[in-house]
Write a structure and sequence with these properties.
By secondary structure, the protein is of the alpha/beta class. It has 3 domains: about 45-225, Galactose-binding domain-like (Jelly Rolls); about 285-455, Alpha-Beta Horseshoe (Leucine-rich repeat, LRR (right-handed beta-alpha superhelix)), CATH 3.80.10.10; about 475-610, Leucine-rich repeat, LRR (right-handed beta-alpha superhelix), CATH 3.80.10.10. It is globular, with a radius of gyration of 29 Å. The protein has helices at about 1-35, 275-285, 290-295, 300-305, 325-335, 355-365, 380-390, 430-440, 460-470, 485-495, 515-525, 540-550, 565-575, 590-600, and strands spanning about 45-50, 50-55, 90, 120-140, 145-150, 165-170, 185, 195-205, 215-225, 255-260, 265, 315, 340-345, 370-375, 395-400, 420-425, 445-450, 475, 500-505, 530, 555, 580-585, 605-610. It has a 12-stranded parallel β-sheet with strand order 12-13-14-15-16-17-18-19-20-21-22-23, with helices on one face. Residues about 1-40 and about 235-260 have low confidence and may be disordered. The chain starts with a helix and ends in a 5-residue tail after the last strand.
C-alpha cells in the first residue's frame, strides 16, 4: 500500500513539473535575455598575474634558490612565448611513469575514483578577488599536465577568514599527451562561480609526458561585480520530462506481477537480500567511497554491508581533500576499526582538520595501520606525530612528504615506530639529531627519502649510520643533499649492498675524480636506478664501470655532465638490456644526432635530451 501511495505521489510531481516548470523556465529565460539584457551595466574585466605562491606538493628545484622552483609562478612571465628548458620556470619533481615502476613506489589504493587524476598541485594567491571568466596557464615546455583548476572562497590576504571555506572546480580533464613540447597558452572553458575568488589551485598529472613540464605564469581574468546573468539559474528539467507520453505512468503496480497461483511477486528489489553475504560484500567493494556512503542510506540491508569494517581495510581520502573535515572523519570512525592502509594526503588545510579530530580517529582506527600517507598535511603538529607513535605500533610505511611546516622537534617521535620499512621525509625540516635517532631504532628500513631535507648538517654522518644500522635498505633518495662526500658514499656502498635505487641528483660535493662512482658501481650490483643529475664530473670511466657491474640497471640520469661520450653510452646500452630511461640532457658531448642514432639502435630505451631555444 505504501509503495502504491509513493508511486501516486511521484506521478503527481512528474505531471506538475511538465505543466509548470518548462513554461516558467522558458518565460523567465526570455525575460532575462530580452528585458534585462539591455539594462546590464558594463563590467570591466580585470587581468592579473599571481601575487604569491602559497603551497605546492613538489618541485624540481632547491629550497634555497629560485631555479626550477614553484615560486617562479608568481608574477609576470619570464620565458613565454619562448619554448624549452629554462631555470626561471616552475617544474614538478617527476614526470612519466618511471617512478611508479620503482621498488620504492607504494601500491595504489583501492577505491580511488577513476576521475581522480591529480598527482601534484600548486596554490596561487592573486591581488584582487574576482568572479573568474578565464584562467590562463602559460606552459613553456612539454605542456599537457594540468588536469584540474579550482577556486576557493577564502581570501588568503583577509584578516577575518570565513568559518566555511569552499572549493569549487572551475575545470577538470584527463591527462593529455601533447604531441609537441612547444610552448602554449592553456585556457580551458571554466564554469561560473557564485563567489569571488583570488585563490586558484592547479592540479597536475605528468604521467603521459615525455619530459618535465615547465610552467611560466598564470593569469586570472574576471569581473569585480557578479555578472547579472549568473544570478539566474535555469531550473533543471529531466530529459524524461520532455516527453508528452504518460504511458510509463499508467501502471502504478508495474513492480508487482501476479503469479499463476494468484500470489503477488515483488520484483522491485530483485531479492538482493537472498544473495550470500560474501557476494554482496564483493559487489559493494567496487564502489567509490561516496557511493558506498550513499548506498548505506538506502535500506538496512545495504547499511549493514556498507558499514562492515572489512570494506574499509584500505581508505584513500586524498581525492576528497576539499570536503574532508573533522565531522566527516568522525562519521567514518566506527567503520574503520580494521583499517590497515590510510591516505590522508593533501587534507586538513586551513583548519578543516584539527588535532582533536585527527587524534580521535587515530585512537580508534590506528591499531592495525601498516601504511599512513600524510603528504602535504599542514594540520600536522608535534602532538599529531606523538599520537601516531602511540596508536600505530605496527606502522611500516609513513609518508610526510612536503610537510614543511612541521617543527623539527616533532620528528623525534618517529623513532618510536620501530617497524618502519618505508619513510618519506622529502622537503621536511628534520634535523640531524632526529634523523640519527630514527636510524638507531628503525633498523628494518627498506626505503628512505631524504630529498631536499636542507636542515641536516652533515649527510656523511647520516649515511654512515645508515650503512651500520639499515643493511636491508633497498632505496635511498638524497636529492639535493648539500654536503655528502665520497667518504660517506663509500661507507654506504659497503654497508648497504642490497641497494636498488639511489638518487644523488644535484649532490654537487661528489667528485668523480675521487673514484666514488666507480666504487659505487662495483659494490652495488643490484642497482636498478641511479640518478647523478647535474654532476658535471661524471665521466666515461664511471659509465663503463656501470656497464660492467650493474646489468639490472633500468633508470640512469646523468644530465649536465660534460665528460661522457657516445662510445661509453653505447657500451652501457649493450650491457644493460633492461634499461628504460637514460637522461643525457645538457651533456655537451652528446648532441641530437647521437641521441637519434642511439635511439634507433636501442628503441626500447627512452633517451632524453632537453633543449632551449
Amino acid at each position: 500500500m505504501l509503495t502504491l501511495l509513493s508511486m501516486f505521489y511521484y506521478i503527481c510531481l512528474r505531471r506538475r513539473s511538465r505543466s509548470g516548470t518548462r513554461g516558467e523556465a522558458l518565460s523567465s529565460r526570455r525575460a532575462v535575455e530580452s528585458g534585462q539584457r539591455a539594462a546590464l551595466p558594463v563590467s570591466v574585466e580585470v587581468e592579473q598575474y599571481a601575487k604569491e605562491v602559497l603551497d605546492f606538493s613538489s618541485h624540481y628545484g632547491s629550497e634555497n634558490s629560485m631555479s626550477y622552483t614553484m615560486w617562479n609562478l608568481a608574477g609576470s612571465p619570464n620565458v613565454y612565448p619562448s619554448s624549452g628548458d629554462f631555470t626561471q620556470t616552475a617544474v614538478f619533481r617527476a614526470y612519466g611513469t618511471w617512478w611508479e615502476q620503482c621498488a620504492s613506489a607504494p601500491p595504489p589504493f583501492r577505491r580511488t575514483p577513476k576521475s581522480f587524476h591529480s598527482q601534484d598541485y600548486i596554490e596561487l594567491a592573486f591581488e584582487e578577488p574576482v568572479y573568474p571568466t578565464a584562467v590562463e596557464v602559460l606552459e613553456t615546455y612539454h605542456p599537457g599536465a594540468i588536469v584540474q583548476i579550482m577556486a576557493c572562497s577564502l581570501n588568503p590576504f583577509s584578516q577575518n577568514p570565513p568559518a566555511d571555506v569552499r572549493w569549487e572546480v572551475l575545470w577538470a580533464g584527463e591527462p593529455t599527451k601533447v604531441l609537441t613540447p612547444q610552448a602554449r597558452q592553456f585556457s580551458p572553458s571554466i564554469k561560473q562561480l557564485s563567489f569571488p575568488t583570488n585563490l586558484i589551485r592547479l592540479e597536475a598529472n605528468s604521467s603521459l609526458l615525455k619530459y618535465y613540464t615547465e610552467l611560466d605564469a598564470v593569469i586570472l581574468r574576471g569581473q569585480r561585480e557578479r555578472p547579472i546573468l549568473s544570478l539566474y539559474k535555469m531550473p533543471r528539467i529531466d530529459i524524461c520530462d520532455l516527453s508528452d507520453s504518460d504511458d510509463e505512468l499508467l501502471d502504478p503496480g508495474a513492480s508487482f506481477r501476479q503469479t499463476g497461483d494468484g500470489k503477488h511477486m515483488n520484483l522491485g528489489n530483485g531479492y538482493f537480500d537472498r544473495l550470500p553475504y560474501e557476494l554482496i560484500q564483493l559487489i559493494v567493494s567496487h564502489l567509490t567511497l561516496p557511493d558506498l556512503c550513499r548506498l548505506a542510506q538506502t535500506c538496512k540491508l545495504f547499511h549493514q554491508h556498507c558499514s562492515d569494517p572489512l570494506q574499509y581495510t584500505q581508505l584513500s581520502l586524498q581525492p576528497y581533500w576539499a570536503r574532508l573535515n573533522d565531522t566527516s572523519l568522525g562519521y567514518l570512525q566506527s567503520r574503520c576499526t580494521l583499517l590497515q592502509r590510510l591516505n590522508l594526503s593533501w587534507t586538513g588545510s586551513r583548519g578543516a582538520l584539527t588535532f582533536s579530530g585527527f587524534s580521535s580517529f587515530m585512537k580508534v582506527c590506528g591499531g592495525n595501520l601498516v601504511c599512513l600517507e600524510l603528504s602535504c598535511c599542514h594540520f600536522l603538529n608535534e602532538a599529531c606525530l606523538e599520537v601516531i607513535s602511540q596508536t600505530c605500533p605496527g606502522l611500516q610505511e609513513l609518508n610526510l612528504s612536503s610537510c614543511d611546516r612541521l617543527h623539527h622537534q616533532a620528528f623525534m617521535h618517529i623513532s618510536k615506530l620501530t617497524r618502519l620499512r618505508r619513510l618519506v621525509l622529502y622537503r621536511t625540516k628534520i634535523e640531524q639529531t632526529a634523523m640519527l635517532s630514527i636510524l638507531t631504532f628503525c633498523t628494518e628500513l627498506r626505503h628512505l627519502n631524504l630529498g631536499s631535507c636542507v636542515m641536516i648538517e652533515d649527510y656523511d654522518v647520516v649515511v654512515s649510520m645508515l650503512a651500520v644500522r639499515c643493511r636491508l635498505l633497498r632505496s635511498l633518495d638524497l636529492w639535493r643533499c648539500r654536503n655528502l662526500t665520497e667518504r660517506g658514499l663509500a661507507e654506504l656502498a659497503v654497508g648497504c649492498r642490497l641497494l636498488e635505487e639511489l638518487d644523488l641528483g644535484w649532490c654537487s660535493t661528489l667528485q668523480s675524480s675521487s673514484g666514488c662512482f666507480q666504487h659505487l658501481a662495483r659494490n652495488l650490483p643490484r642497482l636498478r636506478k641511479l640518478f647523478l643529475t647535474a654532476n658535471r664530473t661524471v665521466c666515461d670511466s664511471d659509465i663503463e664501470e656501470l656497464a660492467a657491474n650493474c646489468p639490472a640497471l633500468q633508470h640512469l640520469d646523468i644530465l649536465g655532465t660534460r665528460m661522457v661520450s657516445s662510445s661509453s653510452l653505447r657500451k652501457l646500452l649493450q650491457a644493460c638490456p633492461k634499461l628504460l630511461l637514460l637522461d643525457v640532457s645538457f651533456c655537451s658531448q652528446v648532441d641530437a644526432r647521437i641521441v637519434q642514432e642511439l635511439s634507433g639502435l636501442f628503441p626500447n630505451v627512452a633517451i632524453k635530451k632537453s633543449f632551449t631555444q
